[in-house]
């Protein structure tokens, strides 16, 4: 009988590990920024430097997994979908871990993130919209007891930053363009899928939203208990956005709650969140520190 389960999520900005025991209790959760999606929107290639950073982290994860003799699932998301050399990268991951990564579609990513977020929140009798801001894409997923529909927006913290936010600090027109692009995409999605704009509850997951919440709280160290389930108001999100977007990177890194390694792309994450909350007319969202990787691990346990 399998005594433990491990999931590795190779994201466009971070590479994450979740290790669970046989009963689904968390043993270890680790997040490392590897920026695998750096430049991929332009080149359609995972760069040698980004691959090297990511593989170095995966090597460390593989060692921890071997210590627990865990059954493993590895997934890749938007950057891996976009790149033309993903097959070679995945082959190297398999050589180092013994497990071939699974390339998630946008629909797969949305479904697993929704279930990952829902597993740790109280159930409700109506619909929940999960907003998952990644490094190269953003998923909006609606469900009740299961996923009803979803849309993948072609913008994430890394890709939006590289495309639109070139100055330090970003110029007002750069910020406006970024927000408008995301807002227009949200509008089009709601026109095609009106239910996305009528959810009873909205939950935000993944690192950008959690980081914005941590900055709002002024956390000097990561505190999952304070962040998970926190109600982040639109006013608070707008306030964090104004603060971070008007600071140079050298000053931005000193904000409590903002990890240094995320400071370069967090304004892009703010643009995404603010645009979504404005266009969907959201007064607040519920922050969840559980996300895609929780859905991957739960699916692995179910299928084992």
Key attributes of the depicted protein:
304 residues, alpha/beta, 5-stranded mixed β-sheet, 13 helices, globular
Would you mind describing this structure in some detail?
Helix content is 46%, strand content 20%. The termini are close together. Helix 5 (106-118) packs across helix 13 (292-303). The chain has 13 helices and eleven strands. The protein is α/β, with parallel strands linked by helices and 304 residues long. The strands form two sheets. Strands 8-7-6-9-11-10 form a six-stranded mixed β-sheet, with helices on both faces.
Compact description:
The protein is of the alpha/beta class.
Q: For the residues shown, what is the average pLDDT? A: 96
- Please tally the β strands and state the result: 11
Structural class: alpha/beta
User: How does the overall form come out from the CA principal axes?
Assistant: globular
Give, in spatial order, the strands making up the sheet with the most strands.
8-7-6-9-11-10
| Straight-line N-to-C gap | 9 Å
Enumerate how many helices there are, as a single number. Answer: 13
Percent of residues in helices comes to 40-55%
Radius of gyration: 18 Å
* Poorly predicted spans: none
Question: Largest beta sheet, briefly?
Answer: 6 strands, mixed
Please report which band the strand proportion falls in: under 5%, 5-15%, 15-25%, 25-35%, 35-45% or over 45%: 15-25%
Order of helices and strands: EEEHHEHHEHEEEHHEHHEHHHEH
